[in-house]
Amino acid sequence: MNSELLQALDMLEKEKEISKDILFAAIEDSLKAACKEHLGRNENVVVEVDRETGDFHCYYEKEVVETEDDLEDDSLQMTLEEAQEITTGAVVGDVLRMEVDSAEFGRIAAGKAKNVILQKIREEEKSSVYNLYKDKVGQVVTGIVQRYVGSTININLGKADAQLTEKEIVPEENLRLTERVKVYILGVPETKKGFRILVSRTHANLVRKLFEEEVTEIRDGTVEIVSIAREPGSRTKMAVRSNEPDVDPVGACVGQGGARVDAVVAELRNEKIDIVEWDENPGNFIQNALSPAKIVAVFADPEEKTAKVVVPDYQLSLAIGKAGQNARLAAKLTGYKIDIKSETQAKDAPGFRYEDYLDDEYGDDEYEEDYEDGYADEEYAGDAYEEYEESVEEEALEEMPMEDASEEVYEEE
């Protein structure tokens, strides 16, 4: 029993994660190559390896023909006379098998056998690694910053190196050598030289997967991430909803004392994260998406995917955000084109006042039809709508001449 060979194959199978059957096939191929090299002819070589004991035998086969005149290839055929010298019972048409002693293989033949085995192992190892990371596309893995190659960073993932290209690097994020980081696997494209593993630190799904790791409710489906809008390195907005009425989706993602969201923020190098509740009413959803700004009213058009938003004068800059970031992320998160104006600006801006949707040119039937279709009316105005309507009425009353105002109040009384 060739116990040393079997032990070596067991070790290779564990270390390289290559099937033992593949290794046995590689040994058979290597022995065939060595045998042909030893014989120096195009012999019909057969190799048999016992998977249980590790024992192997090498043969070459020849077909029996009647005379020398019938020989077409003496490396594959022999005459009846030659065959009967080997076995007396040989007849024309038989295929005789002659064993080759592998101990007689020379240095060149043995070297060729070794090269065949090593080449097969390298190919299978690459194939194993390729399949491993191909199955992890769309997942987050942990790697070690290995080296900088121009504008690309090589991340060691354990069994292979991944490339973090310039456009997938977070601006101003200084990754140090030997630092452990989490990256999102974009793809594993094949090339002429093998394959590449492309990863990202800027992809929005990196945030999604990090929350899946931290929040049990997301993993089990109780809480669902509906959409994410991200400006890498600066700020992310994430909309969540609960599939269970008793579970607060925002609270679940934040965690006790902010522990869950803090873990994600730390991995993203202190990138700000706003978690808002998704709402099927677009007015409410847009209002949530624009937090932390306070909203007076939202007039949303679900068909055109546009929304007009009114905010208090002192909240305008907060609603828009630095360089327009808050409004831009809210638009990405909701899928609506959002136009924001202060209360002062909204007074003279068409479409930002409730009365714009009660114009006299509309007949009752036409307005009711538009109302039912959800065109920028109170159905899609969000929870702030009633407060806005009250404020409009109060302002109109304040602007009324004193005698008219008192008369109006008197008539109501």
Number of strands: 17
CATH class of the largest domain: Alpha Beta
Q: Any guess at the CATH architecture of the largest domain? A: 2-Layer Sandwich
Per the principal axes of the C-alpha atoms, what is the gross shape?
A: elongated
- Biggest pleated sheet: 5 strands, antiparallel
Verbal overview:
- This protein is an alpha+beta fold.
- The chain folds into 4 domains: 3-131, N Utilization Substance Protein A, Chain:P, domain 4, CATH 3.30.1480; 137-202, Nucleic acid-binding proteins (OB fold (Dihydrolipoamide Acetyltransferase, E2P)), CATH 2.40.50.140; 203-278, GMP Synthetase, Chain A, domain 3; 283-413, 2-Layer Sandwich (GMP Synthetase, Chain A, domain 3).
- The protein is 39% helix and 24% strand.
- It has helices at 3-16, 20-39, 80-86, 107-134, 204-214, 216-219, 249-254, 259-267, 282-289, 316-320, 325-334, 343-346, 364-373, 385-399, 402-412, and strands at 44-49, 56-65, 77-79, 95-100, 140-149, 152-156, 161-164, 180-187, 190-191, 194-195, 198-200, 223-231, 235-242, 272-277, 297-301, 306-311, 337-342.
- Helix 9 packs antiparallel against helix 11 (325-334).
- The longest helix has 28 residues, at 107-134.
- The termini are far apart.
Could you list some keywords that capture this structure?
about 425 residues; alpha+beta; N Utilization Substance Protein A, Chain:P, domain 4; four-stranded mixed β-sheet; about 25% strand; disordered C terminus
